[in-house]
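Q: Make up one entry.
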Amino acid sequence: MTKSILQNGDLLFMSDESELSKVIIETTEKYSHVGIYFDGYIYHASIKRGVAKQILEDYLTEEKRDIYIYRYPMIDAEIVKERAERYLGCEYNHSFYPNNGQFYCSQYIAEILPIFDIIPMKFGDGEQEISDYWQKYYEELGMQVPLGQPGTNPGQLARSEKLRYIGRKT
Protein backbone atom coordinates (compact mmCIF):
# COMPACT_ATOMS: atom_id res chain seq x y z
CA MET A 1 0.00 0.00 0.00
CA THR A 2 1.48 3.35 -0.95
CA LYS A 3 1.00 6.93 0.11
CA SER A 4 -1.33 7.45 -2.85
CA ILE A 5 -4.24 5.80 -1.03
CA LEU A 6 -4.03 8.32 1.80
CA GLN A 7 -6.64 11.05 1.87
CA ASN A 8 -6.64 14.22 3.91
CA GLY A 9 -8.12 13.47 7.31
CA ASP A 10 -7.15 9.79 7.37
CA LEU A 11 -6.23 8.58 10.85
CA LEU A 12 -2.95 6.70 11.14
CA PHE A 13 -2.84 4.19 13.99
CA MET A 14 0.44 2.54 14.90
CA SER A 15 2.68 0.87 17.39
CA ASP A 16 6.43 0.73 17.76
CA GLU A 17 9.03 -1.11 19.83
CA SER A 18 9.30 1.37 22.74
CA GLU A 19 8.56 0.33 26.33
CA LEU A 20 5.73 2.89 26.57
CA SER A 21 4.19 1.55 23.36
CA LYS A 22 4.25 -1.99 24.72
CA VAL A 23 2.63 -0.91 28.01
CA ILE A 24 -0.11 1.05 26.22
CA ILE A 25 -0.85 -1.93 23.98
CA GLU A 26 -0.97 -4.17 27.05
CA THR A 27 -3.60 -1.86 28.54
CA THR A 28 -5.59 -0.80 25.48
CA GLU A 29 -4.98 -3.33 22.69
CA LYS A 30 -3.33 -3.14 19.25
CA TYR A 31 -2.31 0.54 18.88
CA SER A 32 -0.17 2.87 20.98
CA HIS A 33 -0.14 6.02 18.83
CA VAL A 34 -2.43 7.89 16.47
CA GLY A 35 -1.99 10.84 14.15
CA ILE A 36 -3.93 12.42 11.31
CA TYR A 37 -2.78 12.88 7.72
CA PHE A 38 -2.98 16.12 5.73
CA ASP A 39 -1.10 17.01 2.54
CA GLY A 40 1.90 14.73 3.07
CA TYR A 41 2.20 15.45 6.80
CA ILE A 42 1.28 13.59 9.95
CA TYR A 43 -0.16 15.81 12.67
CA HIS A 44 0.24 14.23 16.07
CA ALA A 45 1.18 14.71 19.73
CA SER A 46 4.45 13.01 20.61
CA ILE A 47 6.68 12.88 23.65
CA LYS A 48 9.63 14.28 21.65
CA ARG A 49 7.85 17.12 19.85
CA GLY A 50 4.57 17.89 21.61
CA VAL A 51 1.83 18.69 19.11
CA ALA A 52 3.61 18.85 15.78
CA LYS A 53 3.37 18.19 12.09
CA GLN A 54 6.04 16.19 10.33
CA ILE A 55 6.54 15.11 6.77
CA LEU A 56 5.06 11.63 6.87
CA GLU A 57 7.98 9.97 5.09
CA ASP A 58 10.46 11.56 7.53
CA TYR A 59 8.37 10.37 10.46
CA LEU A 60 8.28 6.84 9.05
CA THR A 61 12.07 6.69 8.69
CA GLU A 62 12.69 7.58 12.38
CA GLU A 63 11.89 4.05 13.53
CA LYS A 64 10.02 0.95 12.46
CA ARG A 65 6.28 1.38 12.80
CA ASP A 66 3.32 -0.57 11.55
CA ILE A 67 0.73 1.92 10.23
CA TYR A 68 -2.98 1.15 9.93
CA ILE A 69 -5.19 3.60 8.05
CA TYR A 70 -8.73 4.43 9.14
CA ARG A 71 -11.10 6.94 7.58
CA TYR A 72 -14.05 8.91 8.92
CA PRO A 73 -16.27 9.16 5.81
CA MET A 74 -18.16 12.23 7.07
CA ILE A 75 -15.05 14.32 7.76
CA ASP A 76 -14.83 17.94 6.68
CA ALA A 77 -11.07 17.77 6.17
CA GLU A 78 -10.59 21.54 5.81
CA ILE A 79 -12.23 22.29 9.16
CA VAL A 80 -10.38 19.48 10.93
CA LYS A 81 -7.06 20.62 9.45
CA GLU A 82 -7.73 24.17 10.73
CA ARG A 83 -8.34 22.72 14.19
CA ALA A 84 -5.18 20.58 13.91
CA GLU A 85 -3.10 23.65 13.03
CA ARG A 86 -4.52 25.59 15.99
CA TYR A 87 -2.85 23.30 18.52
CA LEU A 88 0.59 23.01 16.89
CA GLY A 89 3.27 23.81 19.45
CA CYS A 90 1.26 22.70 22.49
CA GLU A 91 3.18 20.59 24.98
CA TYR A 92 2.82 16.83 25.29
CA ASN A 93 0.51 15.78 28.12
CA HIS A 94 2.81 13.50 30.13
CA SER A 95 0.29 13.21 32.99
CA PHE A 96 -2.65 12.21 30.74
CA TYR A 97 -4.87 14.36 32.97
CA PRO A 98 -7.66 16.14 31.05
CA ASN A 99 -8.10 19.86 30.50
CA ASN A 100 -4.57 21.11 31.18
CA GLY A 101 -3.79 22.70 27.80
CA GLN A 102 -1.49 19.82 26.86
CA PHE A 103 -2.23 16.82 24.66
CA TYR A 104 -1.35 13.16 24.34
CA CYS A 105 -1.92 11.61 20.91
CA SER A 106 -5.51 10.34 21.13
CA GLN A 107 -6.55 13.34 23.23
CA TYR A 108 -5.34 15.62 20.41
CA ILE A 109 -7.22 13.63 17.76
CA ALA A 110 -10.42 13.60 19.85
CA GLU A 111 -10.10 17.37 20.31
CA ILE A 112 -9.77 18.17 16.60
CA LEU A 113 -12.19 15.46 15.44
CA PRO A 114 -14.84 15.43 18.19
CA ILE A 115 -16.65 12.24 17.20
CA PHE A 116 -15.21 9.91 19.84
CA ASP A 117 -16.53 8.87 23.22
CA ILE A 118 -14.57 9.90 26.27
CA ILE A 119 -14.03 6.92 28.57
CA PRO A 120 -12.60 6.30 32.06
CA MET A 121 -8.85 5.76 31.78
CA LYS A 122 -7.34 2.42 32.77
CA PHE A 123 -3.78 1.68 33.81
CA GLY A 124 -3.96 -2.04 34.58
CA ASP A 125 -2.05 -4.95 33.12
CA GLY A 126 -4.69 -7.65 33.46
CA GLU A 127 -3.43 -8.61 36.91
CA GLN A 128 -3.35 -5.29 38.74
CA GLU A 129 -5.66 -2.28 38.56
CA ILE A 130 -2.54 -0.12 38.20
CA SER A 131 0.47 -1.86 36.65
CA ASP A 132 3.93 -1.53 38.19
CA TYR A 133 5.02 0.47 35.11
CA TRP A 134 2.31 3.11 35.60
CA GLN A 135 2.79 3.21 39.38
CA LYS A 136 6.49 4.02 38.87
CA TYR A 137 5.72 6.44 36.01
CA TYR A 138 3.42 8.53 38.19
CA GLU A 139 5.66 8.33 41.23
CA GLU A 140 8.40 9.90 39.09
CA LEU A 141 5.95 12.64 38.05
CA GLY A 142 4.97 13.17 41.70
CA MET A 143 1.32 12.67 40.81
CA GLN A 144 -1.54 10.30 41.45
CA VAL A 145 -2.39 7.86 38.66
CA PRO A 146 -5.47 9.35 36.89
CA LEU A 147 -7.37 6.07 37.14
CA GLY A 148 -10.96 6.61 36.02
CA GLN A 149 -10.34 10.17 34.81
CA PRO A 150 -11.99 10.98 31.47
CA GLY A 151 -9.75 10.20 28.53
CA THR A 152 -9.13 8.31 25.31
CA ASN A 153 -6.63 5.86 23.91
CA PRO A 154 -5.64 4.90 20.36
CA GLY A 155 -7.19 1.42 20.52
CA GLN A 156 -10.50 2.83 21.68
CA LEU A 157 -10.56 5.43 18.87
CA ALA A 158 -9.80 2.76 16.26
CA ARG A 159 -12.75 0.68 17.48
CA SER A 160 -15.20 3.52 16.79
CA GLU A 161 -18.03 2.41 14.52
CA LYS A 162 -17.75 5.82 12.84
CA LEU A 163 -14.42 4.88 11.26
CA ARG A 164 -13.74 2.61 8.29
CA TYR A 165 -10.59 0.53 8.11
CA ILE A 166 -8.78 1.27 4.84
CA GLY A 167 -5.66 -0.84 5.07
CA ARG A 168 -2.08 -1.06 6.14
CA LYS A 169 0.68 1.28 4.98
CA THR A 170 3.82 -0.57 3.99
